[in-house]
Design brief:
Blueprint: E1 8-14, E2 18-26, E3 32-34, E4 38-41, H1 44-56, E5 61-65, H2 71-78, E6 83-87, H3 101-113, H4 125-157, H5 162-165, H6 172-183, H7 202-208, H8 215-246, H9 250-256, H10 264-274, H11 284-290, E7 298-300, E8 303-306, H12 316-329, H13 334-347, H14 349-370, H15 376-383, H16 393-402
Parallel strand pairs: 1-5, 5-6
Antiparallel strand pairs: 1-2, 2-3, 2-4, 7-8
Length: 411
């Protein structure tokens, strides 16, 4: 029989308008009794009644299912008085055909009392607020990218080929030409609007604007440009708020910025996702797994079905990939570039970039845990083999393969 870890615990099934709570009490003889399942609304006053009821029953350990954003109000009310665990639905899924709200709450309590539920990482309140602002900034960036694509579509359907002569259609020169097109759709000379260091010649740019934009597309493009300006203003205001919230974590941010490829705002976003207390993760491998940067384990009958990375880390994973792409282009960090090149020869670009992203996250974990800056010399020392070293044939083959060589058996 599994060991009872929580003699008195509560399972909560969370919904949008109400929650269902069930307390499980296990005595010294390992006999479990269940309190009468109670239902509470998600209004704040009723959630306070839930907290009082748990206090009356001497219940401090509470487990609830992660349901959209609906668990957050419950968490905010119970956090000061209870030890909360937030469970992924895949760990609390009940048997199909015997599923009700009351049974769900009881099943959560049953699993939780035996410590069979892995809790999700929930950072402190300040980090949660920073995370929410940073994620909203990511959304605004996505909205801006979408509007840029729609603006480019307006130019394309009007046979205006600015994307063929400008690397950035929203740069200074291209934006000035677009604004001139919206003022008057008649042919004009583009020379006054050109800047230095353009790869395309004035003749090519003049030919690229030889199109006709109808009134409907022109009005659509004006609306898109106006929306983009509004989004830029919103992002500027949001960035100011993010930096003010992140000011209290300035020492940790300065440490994270020592990692290759990570600048100030990327460091703020990283801390907003993982926090500054690394004791919540047992090792750096647990953190990388939480961020979705480790291969899956999916084996059956001795066969590996897949080793793809998981879909976890929807926000931190793309951020670290962007930082990895910047780090491998820098000549200041050869330890990162050398590792990327070695993995790329064997596994390809995409897997090599994920490996570099994991390398950066591992460095961040150790930096925050040990409270010391990034030390590139540690990577360089590990890459250098000892002066006197005897290795077996298998070890020699493994070393050569890590360096990107293809080793075949001799005939």
């Amino acid at each position: 029989m599994p060991k009872i870890v929580y003699p008195i615990c509560c399972g909560i099934d969370v919904h949008k308008s109400f929650v269902v709570a069930c307390i499980a009490v296990t005595d010294e003889k390992l006999v479990t009794t269940y309190s009468k399942t109670k239902r509470f609304s998600t209004f704040t006053n009723d959630l306070r009644r839930l907290a009082d009821w748990l206090n009356q029953q001497n219940c401090r350990d509470v487990c609830m299912e992660s349901t959209g954003k609906y668990w957050i109000p419950v968490w905010n009310v119970l956090e000061p008085t209870c030890n909360l665990v937030l469970a992924h639905p895949k760990y609390t899924k009940a048997i199909k055909g015997k599923k009700t709200d009351k049974r769900d709450a009881k099943w959560i309590a049953d699993c939780f009392k035996h410590d069979l539920i892995n809790g999700s990482f929930i950072p402190p309140e300040e980090i949660r607020q920073l995370r929410d602002l940073v994620r909203y900034h990511t959304k605004l960036t996505s909205y801006t990218t979408g509007e840029k694509n729609r603006a480019q579509n307006c130019l394309t359907v009007s046979n205006i080929k600015l994307d063929d002569v400008f690397s950035n259609v929203f740069g200074k020169a291209a934006s000035a030409i677009t604004a001139r097109l919206l003022e008057n759709n008649k042919p004009f000379d583009v020379t006054p609007y050109l800047t230095k260091n353009l790869k395309a010649s004035p003749e090519e740019i003049q030919a690229a604007v030889d199109g006709v934009m109808c009134a409907n597309q022109a009005e659509k493009l004006r609306i898109i440009r106006s929306h983009m300006d509004s989004l830029a203003l919103c992002k500027a205001n949001l960035e100011s708020e993010i930096l003010s919230v992140a000011e209290k974590f300035l020492p940790q941010i300065n440490l994270v910025t020592t990692v290759p490829g990570i600048k100030t705002f990327a460091a703020v976003a990283t801390i907003g996702e993982i926090g500054v207390d690394m004791s919540v993760f047992e090792t750096s491998r647990h953190l990388c797994s939480w961020a979705g940067l480790t291969p899956q384990n999916d084996q059956s009958a001795g066969k590996k079905k897949t080793t793809r990375i998981s879909r976890a880390g929807a926000y931190i994973k793309p951020l670290l990939v962007q930082c990895a792409l910047a780090a491998i282009k820098s000549n200041m960090h050869p330890e990162v570039r050398n590792r990327y090149n070695a993995i790329k020869k064997r596994r390809g670009h995409k897997k090599a970039i994920i490996a570099i992203a994991r390398m950066l996250l591992t460095a961040i974990y150790n930096i925050l845990k040990k409270n010391e800056p990034y030390n590139a010399e540690l990577y360089r020392l590990s890459d250098k083999p000892p002066v006197q070293r005897e290795v077996s044939v298998e070890q020699a083959i493994f070393i050569l393969q890590r360096q990107g060589y293809l080793v075949t058996a001799s005939t």
